[in-house]
Each structure stands twice: as structure tokens, then as C-alpha cells.
Specification:
Chain lengths: 286, 309
């Protein structure tokens, strides 16, 4: 499948030549296809957000190129199309909500795009359905929970019908329920709506659900692969001070102490299966 | 005299009371915080956690019920709320967003200066607060707070509250939005404030894994009221209730419950990775020790009972 986003050998320097010069990205390459859910993890200052901001031309590379559906983000004449193709959702829902009711807020984007009113109604209803917020059309956003607000912010982006959505720590400010609500929504955008989804997060329990995980450190991609490929390298992750899910950590410790567990589990269910198998209580034997 | 530092009795609170948007946020809340405790309040967003802690220092006034700090009803005539706010230091969510001064020292000095401390006392309070949160006074006092890392910024904000020399430190989701390194840094700081400096600490958290490791007592809120209280180990026994409230239990606690459901009841009160490791390792090594004894090893493990402390 043709990638929606293509990042080619991108380096980016903040304040180039100035006193605060920082090389935030160093030779980063990445492709994200429609329907794909990619999680980007790494510490603050690792370059995650800088990378995200290249995906809809908020930043253009110092070196290298970023293509959005083949459009180079350096091409200012395509800026409008690029921003319509790649929607961004940020950490704090309160900073992203502009209107006094949920439906007006979701309608804000398409109105700005000049979508006719009848279509706006449909887009708003569809977007709210996708984020599971139907029924809250007339609610005041400030009265909603964090997870609900963030889903309204996502609906506002979806209503513009982008091909790709980039979420910069959308769950950072939410409680566990809010996080799982937003994560379920984000996954659905990829699996059901066919969007290219780039999800930046500090929560490894979210990253294990992605199709692909990209680990950033010091402006470079330190590690990339399926969640199992990435999380079976605990030494590397520890060196980067990154969390792993508790069951992954536990299995690693058990294996290090000699327990013959067969793999690096990513979820509770996987480790339960492995332990049951090992002690003779596997599905077929209990 | 009991050593209770904050007592909340029969507290009711309604947001936007008397308007069409009125929303009952707290219903019949009774809570007490003992001096020297490290208590975590858990509950999903909207359960009333933040509303409750804003009553602890009089930022919100209850519809009815009382808030007693250090033995005084804070809403009784003649009680100066300023004293209460100094006694109960409240660190809001994302406190670094409230940094505004040009230097770290000036930012931390803001509250004590406002309280009318002499400049010498203010300087002493700033040094002390920075020392307590492990920020190097000489290296950082003149720096702009905006140049610091996320973890450092948050510690500056906490230092700004500590500089008032409160007796109780109340933190609303102190690790929210931080990366793993920053989270560990701030949690270690809080533990140190508690253990080395004797602070009474109340923190709101969304991480069951963190509160399992740190808190001595949990207060669980749901729908604007307190629904459970106890040690993390006691509270996390109620897995189904907690899941229904949108909270859950630490992942390893869930693992042990799932194993029990598969006929492998190793232990039912495991709340940390270390405990899970000590519980599971003997059984799994037993299982692998001799191929033919795998089943027996499993059975022995299954009979292993609870984790001893």
C-alpha cells in the first residue's frame, strides 16, 4: 500500500546557528500507510513531537524531505492540502476546544474548510458516532470528562476527513477509563476507517496494541518493529529508561531467574497462557 | 488528642449551584488524614477527587458539612483561610504551567513573599525547598524555569508550595503527562518528602501500579463519594468493583486473578512485580526441574496459598 506519510532522512535543528541550537532529529526515516496504527514512544526531548510536527508541515526539515500523499511539505502551495490530509490532536483537550457546545466544536473545522451546512451536519454526526459521543451534541465541552473532551477533539479532526491523524500524547492527561476510551477510538480510526494513525504515547500498555512501535532517543529512531520485537529487548528499553508493561517485566525477571517461559508476553492473557502451559494447566489439560 | 490533621465530615458540594448547570460533585463525604501518612486518592475523572482536595485548604466552600484542619473548622468565623492555605499546600495538576517568574528562585519565593515573610526568611525558605526537592540552589536559582526539563519544572512548582512550609502536601496527579523518567523522578521525590522529611502527603493518582508501590492507604472515590478505604493490598482485593468503577488493579494483580481462574491460585494478594516474581518463581522452576514432574510442580504451586510478608 502506498504510504500516506513518508519521512526520508529527516534532520531538524532548532535555532540553527543560534545560541540555543539543538539537533532535534537526526536522519529519521519512516513510512506510515493507510490503516496502519504506529505508536511512537520515547522520552521528552527524544524528538517524538518534533517528528510529529513534520507530518503536517508545522515544521519543515532542515535536511531530508517529508511527503504527505506524495506532496512535499516544503511546497507551500500545497500547505492547505497537506493540513487537510493530516490532522493533529494534542495532549491537552482544553486547549483544543473552541466552541460552547460539542457539535459547534466539531463543526468548526469543516466550516472553516467551506463545507456546505447540510454536509457539515452529516460530518458532525458521523464524527461523533466514530468517537462514541453521539448524544452529547448539545453538551458544554467544559462539563465533559477528560476522555470525552479528547474524543470531541478527535471528532473535530475526523470531521475534516483527513487520511492521517497524528496524536501527540492524547492520553497523557486522562484517567484509565479515558485512556482506554481514547485508545479504542484511535485503534478504530486505523482498523475501521482505514486512516494512517500515528500515536505518540508514554504508556507502554498502549504501545503494545499498535501494529508497529517506533522508539525515539536523542533525535534518532533507536528501535522499531512489531510490539513483540521491540518489547523483547528489555536491555535496550532499560538503557533508555523506558517502562515495559508489568507482565513483560515480570516474565523477563522470571526468565532471567531460569523459568523456561517461551516468549516475551505483552499482555496478561499471554503470560497466563504461557504459565498455564508450563505447569501443565494448559487449555487442553485442565 | 488524635493525630488527625484533616477531617472532612458529611461534605456536600454542588458546582454552579442555583443555575441550570448545577452538578452535584460531592455527596456525604467523610475522610480523615492522619499526620505523617502517605495517602492516595483514586477514582476516575469526575469522581470528585480534585473537588475534594480543593476543600482541604478552603479553595472550595462546601454546601454543607465541615472541613477541620488541625482541629479547627476552617469555615468558622475568625479562622483565617490564609493560615489554612499555608498549612495545607496544594499542588495542582500540571503545576509547571503556573511558573511565571524570570528565575527559579523568584518563582519559588513568590508565595512566601506574599505571606509577608522577611527577605532573609524568604531566601532561607527557597534554599530549604530547593534542597528538599533535590534542585541545586547555586546552579539553578538564577536560571529561567522555562529552560528546565519537565521533571525539574515540576519540582520547581512543588518547591514553590513547600516554601510556604506546609504541614500537609496535597498533590493532584503529580506525574500526569510526564515521561517514564520524569514520573520516577517525581515519585522518588514524593517518597523522600514523606520518608526523610516527614511530610503528610495526599496524592491523587491514576496509576494503580504506582499507588500499589507508594501509598500506605488508599481512598477510592466513585460518583462523588468515598466507596472504599484501606491499604493497597486490601483495596486491590476488590478487583471486580474497581474495574466496574473504571479503575482496575495493578497488572500483576490481574495476572494472579486470571491464573487463579485457570486453576492456578498461587496467591490472591500480590500487588507488585517483585511479589509476583517471588510467588511464581518457585512454582515455575519446580515445573521445569524435571520434565515428568511438571504436573506435580504445578499442583504444588497451586496449593501454595498467599504471599507471606
Amino acid at each position: 500500500m502506498k504510504p500516506v506519510i513518508r519521512v526520508e532522512n529527516v534532520s531538524y535543528t532548532y535555532d540553527g546557528g543560534g545560541p540555543g541550537e539543538v539537533e532535534a532529529l537526526l536522519d529519521v526515516s519512516l513510512e506510515v500507510a493507510g490503516g496502519e496504527f504506529v505508536a511512537v514512544i520515547g522520552h521528552n526531548g527524544s524528538g517524538k513531537s518534533t517528528l510529529a510536527k513534520h507530518m503536517n508541515a508545522i515544521f519543515v526539515p532542515t535536511r531530508g524531505d517529508v511527503y504527505v500523499l506524495g506532496m512535499n511539505t516544503r511546497d507551500e502551495s500545497r500547505l492547505w492540502d497537506i493540513r487537510q490530509t493530516v490532522g493533529m490532536v494534542f495532549q491537552n483537550p482544553d486547549n483544543q476546544i473552541v466552541a460552547t457546545t460539542v457539535e459547534e466544536d466539531v463543526a468548526f473545522g469543516p466550516e472553516n474548510l467551506g463545507v456546505p451546512p447540510a454536509q457539515i451536519r452529516r460530518r458532525v454526526d458521523e464524527a461523533l458516532a466514530i468517537v462514541d459521543m453521539t448524544g452529547h451534541e448539545k453538551s458544554a465541552p467544559h462539563m465533559l470528562s477528560g476522555g470525552q473532551k479528547q474524543r470531541v477533539a478527535i471528532a473535530g479532526v475526523i470531521a475534516m476527513r483527513p487520511k492521517c491523524i497524528v496524536l501527540d500524547e492524547p492520553t497523557a492527561m486522562l484517567d484509565p477509563v479515558g485512556r482506554s476510551e481514547v485508545l479504542a477510538t484511535v485503534r478504530r480510526l486505523a482498523s475501521e476507517e482505514g486512516m494512517a494513525v500515528v500515536h505518540i504515547t508514554h504508556f507502554m500498555n498502549e504501545a503494545v496494541l499498535a501494529d508497529r512501535v517506533v522508539v525515539m532517543e536523542g533525535g534518532r529512531i533507536a528501535l522499531a518493529g512489531t510490539p513483540r520485537e521491540v518489547f523483547s529487548q528489555p536491555a535496550t528499553l532499560r538503557r533508555l529508561d523506558l517502562d515495559v508493561p508489568q507482565v513483560t517485566e515480570l516474565a523477563y525477571e522470571l526468565r532471567a531467574a531460569g523459568a523456561p517461559l517461551p516468549r516475551c508476553p505483552l499482555t496478561v492473557a499471554e503470560l497466563v497462557d504461557d504459565i498455564a502451559e508450563l505447569v501443565g494447566k494448559g487449555a487442553g489439560q485442565s | 488528642m488524635s493525630d488527625t490533621i484533616i477531617e472532612v465530615h458529611d461534605l456536600y458540594y454542588t458546582y454552579m449551584r442555583g443555575t441550570p448547570l448545577a452538578r452535584q460533585a460531592l455527596t456525604n463525604v467523610n475522610v480523615s488524614i492522619e499526620r505523617g501518612e502517605l495517602v492516595a486518592i483514586i477514582g476516575r475523572t469526575g469522581s470528585g477527587k480534585s473537588t475534594l482536595i480543593q476543600h482541604f485548604n478552603g479553595l472550595l466552600k462546601p454546601d454543607s458539612g465541615s472541613v477541620v484542619v488541625g482541629g479547627r473548622d476552617i469555615w468558622r468565623k475568625g479562622v483565617a483561610l490564609r493560615d489554612i492555605r499555608r498549612k495545607v499546600g496544594l499542588v495542582f495538576q500540571y503545576p509547571e504551567h503556573q511558573l511565571f517568574e524570570e528565575t527559579v528562585a523568584a518563582d519559588i519565593a513568590f508565595a512566601p513573599r506574599n505571606l509577608g515573610m522577611s527577605e532573609a526568611d524568604v531566601d532561607e525558605a527557597v534554599r530549604e525547598a530547593m534542597r528538599v526537592v533535590d534542585l541545586d540552589y547555586d546552579a539553578l536559582r538564577g536560571r529561567s524555569p522555562f529552560e528546565l526539563s519537565g521533571g525539574q519544572k515540576r519540582r520547581v512548582a512543588i518547591a514553590g508550595v513547600l516554601a510556604m512550609r506546609p504541614e500537609v502536601l496535597v498533590l493532584d496527579e503529580p506525574t500526569a503527562g510526564m515521561d517514564p523518567r520524569g514520573r520516577e523522578e517525581v515519585l522518588a521525590e514524593i517518597r523522600q518528602l514523606h520518608e526523610a522529611h516527614g511530610y503528610t502527603i495526599v496524592l491523587v493518582s491514576h496509576s494503580m501500579e504506582d499507588v500499589a508501590r507508594f501509598a500506605e492507604r488508599l481512598i477510592v472515590m466513585d460518583g462523588g463519594t468515598v466507596v472504599m478505604e484501606g491499604s493497597p493490598r486490601e483495596v486491590f482485593r476488590n478487583r471486580e468493583d474497581l474495574v466496574r468503577m473504571g479503575l482496575g488493579v495493578p497488572q500483576v494483580t490481574g495476572l494472579m486473578a486470571e491464573l487463579a481462574a485457570r486453576g492456578l491460585p498461587y496467591a490472591e494478594n500480590v500487588i507488585t512485580v517483585e511479589e509476583a516474581l517471588h510467588t511464581l518463581l518457585p512454582a515455575l522452576l519446580g515445573a521445569s526441574g524435571a520434565g515428568g514432574d511438571a504436573g506435580a510442580g504445578g499442583d504444588a504451586g497451586a496449593g501454595g496459598g498467599e504471599v507471606g510478608e
